[in-house]
Design goal:
The chain is an all-alpha fold. The protein contains 7 helices and no strands. Helix 1 packs antiparallel against helix 2 (37-60).
Length: 178
């Protein structure tokens, strides 16, 4: 695979770190952190990272190329709409969070295909990555029941981050052999 696949993987690591920090902030400050200037900044940073990942994965992956090129932009659009809702103060935090849930359902669909590309480097880490993405997304749904269930998202993102760190090392090592 190309160096663009490695770039996409590294961008995904950075995004996972930003999300990790954001979920910690939501855990301690409540979901209203989404509606704060920190929430807007975090959403903007994640949107920029999503563009970088989209570009890199759309050109550097093989199995996920179609889903990254045609499905992922729908998730990015949902993320942008959620960010716009926050900026405009529209029923914050729950309505934007529900739109964000839709964005991450789409990310989970794309991650399912991306997992096939990651399997070339580590079958276990690729599958753990998908489990993490799925748990994170499930947690976004569960916060509608109780804000404390953001812990499910935290667990999912942590699992995804650990898998991505391992995959980054494996993808880098693989790119050095070519």
């Amino acid at each position: 695979m190309s160096s663009l696949f490695l770039t996409g993987t590294l961008v995904s690591v950075v995004a996972a770190v930003v999300i990790e920090l954001f979920v910690f902030a939501a855990l301690f400050q409540g979901l209203v952190v989404i509606c704060s200037p920190l929430g807007v900044l975090g959403g903007f940073v994640l949107l920029l990272l999503a563009f970088a990942a989209l570009y890199s994965y759309s050109r550097g992956s093989s199995h996920a190329r179609w889903s990254v090129s045609f499905i992922a932009p729908l998730g990015m659009l949902a993320g942008f709409i959620a960010l716009l809702m926050v900026v405009l103060g529209y029923s914050c935090p729950l309505t934007p969070l529900r739109v964000l849930f839709v964005a991450y359902v789409i990310e989970t669909i794309v991650a399912y295909r991306l997992r096939l590309d990651f399997r070339a480097y580590s079958r276990l880490s690729a599958d753990v990555f998908l489990v993490g993405v799925t748990l994170f997304t499930l947690g976004l749904l569960l916060v509608n029941i109780d804000e404390l269930l953001i812990l499910v998202s935290l667990l999912g993102n942590t699992v995804k981050l650990v898998a991505l760190l391992h995959l980054s090392i494996a993808v880098y090592a693989g790119s050095q052999r070519v």
